[in-house]
Amino acid sequence: MAKVNVSIPQGTRDFNAETVRKRNYIFNTIRKVFEIYGFQPLETPSMENLETLMGKYGEEGDKLIFKILNNGLDNPDKHLQAKAEFEKVLEGKNNKSITERALRYDLTIPFARYVAMNHGQLTFPFKRYQIQPVWRADRPQKGRYREFYQCDADVVGSNSLLNEVELTNIYATVFKKLGIDVEIRINSRKILAALAEVCGGADKMIDITIAIDKLDKIGLEKVKDELTARGLNAEQILTIEKYLSITGSNEDKLTAISSLFSNSELGNKGIDEIKHVLDNAKSLTQNAERTIQNSNSDDHDVLLTTDVSRIHDSHLVIDFTLARGLNYYTGIIFEIKAIGVQMGSIGGGGRYDDLTGLFGVPNIPGVGISFGVDRIYDVMEELKLFPEAVQSGTKVLFFNLGKAESKIAFDLMQLLREKEIACEMYHETTKFDKQFKYAEKKNIPYIIIIGSKELEENNCVIKHLTTSTQQTIAMNEITNYIFE
Q1: Where are the alpha helices (DSSP H) in 8-161?
Q2: Exposure of 401 by Cβ count < 10 A (0-12 exposed, 13-18 middle, 19+ buried)?
Q3: pTM score, two decimals?
Q4: Which CATH superfamily is domain 394-480 in?
Q5: According to DSSP H, which parts of 312-402 are helical?
Q6: How confident is the model over 9-23, as pLDDT tens digits?
Q7: Number of helices followed by number of strands (H, E) in the chain
């Protein structure tokens, strides 16, 4: 038989048991916080109609959408007919005879499509969370994959900035629980729109935001080159450079931006939004601290306000260079950076006040955030933040020492499983040494031995491999034994 080169597509990964357990730890932490804040789960299909996705992510995003070829293109005649048209598809042009569907690029647009289709049956404000994979035809690199999970929380049907404050709190809570020190960076697209106005008009906004969004990757000089290529003149670029150079504390930045946009109504609205989030996050922190001090509860995890207290001013940072290249954002935008790790953003989101209008259902405002689980995983691995308990799998291995012995062992194993103690029995009768090695390789902490002597005396031997201790107990006491 010829040797087959077995591989997986570039930018995708297999996950072994250890990795899956760690990822589930992240998923479960995020899911628990979402539900504490009143969000309910939703799932949408892996693929969407291409027209649902195209034109929603800007020119850069549209290039990264994985298109799915229509059925039947493997037919030679159809393939020849389609070849010329397929070349156009590769250039980003759509042709329904070639492709009508695509893998979802993110969870936000499918959510907006869902709301547009079901708005008559939903109770507003509608708060949903979604944990599913997405696909992007990006160039794979550290922290950037072609298939990856997103965890989103969105609120639609409300203009209240309370939603932005709560989403900020959710970010702070989750990363505190995961042990990751982060900066929660915020800006407003209204401020970016005001910058475009100062630079010649609203039609300049997309060009400016696309260029600014690359600042971390390519640096200021190349951003200026791109702005030039996009038709901005030297005076306009100088204004943008001045804008991008604003530094200092949050208060310093607000003072500088207020001066720059003193005559812009739109800019001042954006500034007021940012102030609102900062002021209310600070207020909630103070209230939370008082609640904790006055509480007699020993279990502070049950206090929602305990989670709110995780926000610290030093971690909630105004970043006027933050642009978020997606075109649908209209207000506050977020981006999360892990401190002390060389990694791209591990979360982001913002307000989109007419996203469902793209699907013929206008006037349903929304705001949402997303967690990048794959990058969060990489950060936690690098910083060694996963608790040891995450890797707990099989707790007890029953040795297989003969037909009669294994029958009793199987019955006892079922009793432990009913008490939710993970256990298994070695698959065949063999030497002690082989069964011991199996337990050691799988990091199983306990083994239970029932040989002919134990069978006769209705006992079993429990060995704790971690402490190298053992104990003999009656079989009918096994469900009372504490497997730590």
Answers
A1: 17-36, 50-53, 58-62, 76-90, 108-118
A2: buried
A3: 0.82
A4: Anticodon-binding domain (3.40.50.800)
A5: 373-383
A6: 999 999 999 999 999
A7: 18, 16
